[in-house]
Write a structure and sequence with these properties.
- There is one protein chain.
- With 598 residues, the chain is an alpha+beta fold.
- Helices cover 41% and strands 18% of the residues.
- A seven-stranded mixed beta sheet has the order 2-3-4-1-7-8-9, sandwiched between helices. It has a seven-stranded antiparallel beta sheet with strand order 15-12-13-14-11-10-16, with helices on one face. A three-stranded antiparallel beta sheet has the order 17-19-18.
- β3 and β4 (34-38) form a beta hairpin.
- α9 (273-284) crosses α10.
- It starts with a strand and ends in a 13-residue tail after the last helix.
Length: 598
């Protein structure tokens, strides 16, 4: 008997039906030589400190650091979990083969491995590795089952992450709570949440300390076109600006040069989880957690591919399946028919195996969305579908005209952009969040050497403070370890040094809100006094630096690829933990932090 273990009952039902295991039992399906059972996500977890020694039951500053000689796992104390685990344990005890059908990602691998270890599986274990839950994908996955050992490094990375979070989270929380709060008040500290909070607090400080300053820019209007002074100068006083303005007033504006360049613009890249959460926060005001739940639902309804991904590329083996997916998207036939008329280009901007590890970007599966009744799920599917279709349209082609002019010795410039072939913009219009730029105005016909009267003016502006984070901009900052990066190519390159994983970043934000360290103010994410006080108290940069935490994330990814030792990673964290504890113990500031617990 082969035993399949899925992560959810709904997935077990689908797999059991396809395998012919249609006899429903208590906690599993049976038939055709298979038993198909399930977990409820995590059934097991790392042991608590008190499970290792009586001494760690009590919170004591001088019992730190808590570092078990060997980490162990235990069942989560929940009656339904314990009952389901016993079902799994009984089934695998007589199995000829176990097939791990958990979600195909790091967390899914960790969930299943812990259950298999706790159940003491002795028989061979295979891995079902699929990127969507369509019937075709499941059938193909079962025809190409992989050896469980192929995913050992994925498991080691997940285990190292869990142990790292245990070491810094439990020790750090006890350490700072005991040292800096009153009894009964917990100060939550963590490997990812603390540097995330530090970014929010730093932004708060930048806004709080910002002093607005007026400045003036020189411009002139000729033939109803605004020309900007070049090189751009920001005059700190009106008087300085007026000196220049008065100097050029008597002179005509002369058109010195006209140049025209053609340009191309690719469609916005396919979605990974973070860019999807950013987009939905900007468009619809959804929280990152809401978007994650919605895209998970679309995945389980077989409409989109695996969502917890951090790449915007597709693997080359998907190329041959694209026409079929597009053809099946009958609700979008007005747009897809145009693509299907000719041969689809295999562009490196879409298909790149070197940019795909576990899974490819989020795309539609081709299954019909007509059964969707939830309005937000329909919106989300539509967003993903249009982005997918747009990537197979031609590039947008445009011309940019630059006009150089002068009045006496002062140089001016005006630019304009004209769309010649909209390409993918037929599908998406202006890409999301794209604002109309000054250089996208259409210019009239100018002639080199022409001249005429103009109207110079000084435009008063005021410097503005940095903006509060929204969930979207915070997710982008987490992805790039605190750096403000808008360029898609650069963002892609920096993902290995981001803090947290795409699948956990939304929960980190929710945890900070729950702990009372940050708050939602409409779309804004702002630090609270408790959050500010906590970051001000943490003097150790290792614990709160996004850059350093990003380096830890890089090492976890390298563990996943077999390029770095899990032992080295944990030993490094242990050393850093000892440094943090010694520093806090020796602090004589007497600071106390008040935090509202939710």
């Amino acid at each position: 008997m082969k035993v399949c273990i899925t992560e959810k009952p709904s997935v077990a039902r689908d797999i059991a039906s396809l395998l012919g295991a249609r006899n429903r039992k208590d906690g599993y399906f049976e038939g055709n030589g298979y038993c198909v059972t399930w977990t409820f996500g995590h059934l097991c977890t790392l042991k608590d400190p008190a499970d290792y020694t009586e001494r760690w039951k009590r919170w004591d500053l001088y019992s730190l650091p808590m570092i078990p000689p060997k980490f162990g796992i235990k069942l989560i104390d929940n009656d339904s979990y314990i009952k389901q685990f016993k079902v799994i344990e009984n089934l695998v005890s007589t199995a000829s083969e176990v097939i791990n059908c958990g979600d195909a990602g790091q967390e899914g691998e960790l969930i299943q491995r812990w259950v298999l270890q706790k159940a003491d599986v002795k028989c061979p274990v295979k891995r079902l590795w699929i990127s969507s839950l369509t019937d075709a994908a499941i059938r193909d996955g079962f025809q190409n089952l992989r050896d469980s050992a192929e995913f050992d490094n994925l498991y080691y990375a997940g285990l190292s992450r869990a142990i790292g979070d245990w070491l810094l989270g439990l020790n750090g929380t006890r350490l700072y709570s005991l040292k800096y709060s009153d009894p009964g008040i917990t100060l939550s500290v963590g490997r990812v949440q603390t540097p995330t909070l530090a970014m929010i607090v730093e932004r708060h400080r930048e806004i709080e300390n910002f002093k607005p300053q007026d400045y003036w820019e020189l411009k002139t209007v000729y033939r109803d076109v605004t020309f900007n002074a070049t090189p751009a100068v920001k005059y700190s006083s009106l008087e300085k600006g007026k000196e220049v303005l008065e100097k050029i007033k008597p002179f005509l504006l002369v058109i010195d040069d006209i140049s025209e360049k053609t340009g191309r613009e690719s469609a916005p890249r396919l979605f990974d989880l973070t860019s999807l959460q950013v987009e939905c926060n900007s468009r619809f005001g959804w929280s990152a957690d809401e978007t994650l739940k919605l895209i998970q639902s679309l995945y389980e309804k077989k409409l989109t591919t695996y969502p917890r991904v951090d790449t915007t590329y597709l693997s080359s083996d998907l190329y041959t399946r694209i026409p079929e997916i597009l053809k099946n998207m009958v609700h979008y036939s007005e747009l897809t028919d145009e693509i299907l008329k000719g041969k689809i280009e295999k562009s490196k901007k879409i298909f790149d195996d070197s940019k795909v590890t576990d899974h490819h970007a989020i795309i539609p599966t081709g299954e019909s969305p007509k059964k969707l009744t939830d309005q937000r799920e329909r919106q989300l599917y539509h967003l993903i579908a249009l982005r997918f279709i747009a990537n197979f349209y031609p590039e947008c082609r445009f011309t940019t005209t630059t006009v150089l002019a002068s009045a006496e010795e002062q140089q001016f410039r005006a630019t304009g952009k004209v769309i010649k072939d909209p390409g993918w913009r037929i599908v998406l219009g202006n890409s999301s969040n794209e604002e109309k730029k000054e250089d996208e105005t259409v210019l009239p016909e100018f002639t080199k050497g022409e001249s005429g009267p103009h109207r110079p003016k000084l435009q008063k502006k005021t410097t503005t403070p940095p903006k509060d984070f929204t969930e979207g901009t915070l997710l982008k900052a987490m992805e790039s370890a605190g750096k403000n990066v808008d360029d898609e190519t650069l963002r892609e390159a920096m993902k290995e040094n981001g803090i947290g994983r795409p699948s956990t970043r939304s929960s980190i934000i929710e945890t900070l809100i729950k702990r009372g360290y940050v708050k939602r103010n409409r779309k804004k994410i702002q630090a609270t006094p408790a959050g500010i006080a906590l970051i001000d108290t943490i003097s150790n940069e290792l614990l709160k630096s996004p850059k350093l935490t990003g380096m830890w994330e890089n090492k976890l990814r390298r563990i996943e690829r077999g390029e770095y030792s899990p032992k080295e990673f944990i030993d490094e964290l242990k050393t850093q933990l000892n440094e943090i504890i010694v520093g806090v113990r020796n602090d004589r500031s007497g600071v106390k932090i008040e935090a509202k617990q939710k």
